[in-house]
Design brief:
It is a single chain. The chain contains 13 helices and 15 strands. The chain is α/β, with parallel strands linked by helices and 396 residues long. A 7-stranded mixed β-sheet has the order 4-10-9-8-7-5-6, with helices on both faces. Strand 11 and strand 12 form a beta hairpin. Helix 3 packs antiparallel against helix 10. The chain binds pyridoxal-5'-phosphate (PLP). The site of pyridoxal-5'-phosphate has 15 residues, from helix 5.
Length: 396
């Protein structure tokens, strides 16, 4: 089917929740994708931080093929081999002692918040259920995660929201200290805010939050749905700070493009979930977790973290050079391969211009161009994006 017909059918039959660009992508390999008409694009969106390994990584494809021929799904009534393997690998390479599997970032965050409340009921004094989250945060689209999200634009039209949330400014540990009261059970945040405009923690901020949580006896939850699995140059963003959270959520790139979510839990807290307390039909499904084992192994064994760090700092330095040339660039920021250019004007038309030139980038918050290439990206590909961007900027 040609692209016009496909887009017409999409308008007719698919719910209108996305503002889409007028291309139909049908194939991907590494850092490239192709549309139905055969046009090639360099992909610096990577499914919004899902395709960290690049598109159709051979190890993920092979794992899916093998697993699909063996067993696609069984209930969590039974033990599941690749689920056990992925949980073991995640625990071996993180602070965690136990993993709960689900299917998306929102679901992982739901699990984290449910566990925080359950743990509070069992282990904290008084009735503690409130969770402090950050302004500018993004935690998902279910009712609880939508409420946890500290951005009013996502709340509009959905009131009444869930009770039990409080918002404070990002990068302000004293605001958290002041907000904690006798109802607080946890502080939840993204160590680098993605949807909120690529906002990095200032030095000592995360450590400060860890200290406050320890002092007050409450939990620290990191949402690494977007920045986990190598995006910042370490497997998990918390590793940059020399601290550990109590709970951590993952999704997006955990299974190399196959839907999955995970809640990583420390010993002593994990015990508050007992059989029947929480569940998901598809959570930890054989197909998804087999892909997860392949994806995590590839990240760890194929030099992707090193490449992310190296190419990421090269990319950042090229963006910083650009800032000197164009007065409408307000700020350049990011870590590893989650980078952003904050503009003094709207960035939507720039994304469209780049698309026409065969490069996929994203704009968040209306004026922050966001770059999330696969972790296998090369300096040459970064050069191509920077040079094309300069061409577009020169026309402004
Ligand atoms: C930090 C963060 N948390 C949670 C989510 C929600 O994930 P999902 O769309 O898989 O539910 C996202 C999605 O962009 C995210 O960036």
């Amino acid at each position: 089917m040609d692209s016009q017909t496909l887009m017409m059918l999409s308008e007719k039959y698919v719910a209108n929740t996305y503002a889409r660009y007028p291309i139909v992508l049908v194939r991907g390999k590494g850092t490239r994708v192709w549309d139905v008409d055969g046009k090639e694009y360099l992909d610096f969106v990577a499914g919004l931080a899902v395709c960290n390994l690049g598109h159709c990584h051979p190890r993920v494809v092979k794992a899916l093929q093998n697993q699909a021929e063996k067993l696609i799904h069984v209930s969590n009534f039974y033990y599941i081999e690749p689920q056990i393997q992925l949980a073991s690998l995640l625990c071996k390479h993180s602070f965690a002692d136990k993993v709960f599997f689900c299917n998306s970032g929102a679901e992982a965050n739901e699990g984290a918040m449910k566990l925080a409340r359950k743990y509070a009921k069992e282990k904290m004094e008084g009735d503690r259920y409130e969770i402090i989250t950050m302004e500018g945060s993004f935690h998902g689209r279910t009712f609880a995660t939508l409420t946890a999200t500290g951005q009013e634009k996502f709340h509009k039209g959905y009131s009444p929201l869930m009770p039990g949330f409080k918002y404070v400014p990002f990068n302000d540990p004293e605001a958290v200290r002041k907000a904690v009261d006798t109802k607080t059970c946890a502080v939840m945040l993204e160590p680098v805010q993605g949807e909120g405009g690529v906002n990095c923690p200032s030095e000592g901020y995360l450590k400060g939050l860890r200290e406050i949580c320890d002092e007050k006896g409450i939990l620290l939850i990191f949402d690494e749905v977007q920045v986990g699995m190598g995006r910042t140059g370490k497997l998990f963003a918390y590793e940059h700070e020399g601290i550990e959270p109590d709970l951590l959520t993952l999704a997006k790139s955990l299974a190399g493009g196959v839907p999955i979510g995970a809640l990583l839990i420390k010993k002593g807290i994990a015990e508050s979930f007992r059989p029947g307390d929480h569940a998901s039909t598809f959570g930890g499904n054989p197909l998804a977790t087999a892909a997860g084992v392949a994806a995590l192994s590839a990240i760890l064994e194929e030099g992707m973290l090193e490449n992310c760090e190296k190419v990421g700092s090269y990319f950042l330095s090229r963006l910083e050079e650009m800032k000197k040339k164009f007065a409408f660039i307000k700020e350049v920021r990011g870590k590893g391969l989650i980078l952003g250019i904050e503009l003094k004007m709207e960035g939507g038309s720039i994304v469209k211009e780049m698309l026409q030139r065969g490069i996929l980038i994203n704009c968040t918050m209306g004026n922050v161009l966001r770059f999330l290439p696969p972790l296998i990206v090369t300096r040459e590909e970064v050069d191509q994006v920077v040079e094309t961007l300069e061409e577009v900027f020169n026309k402004i």
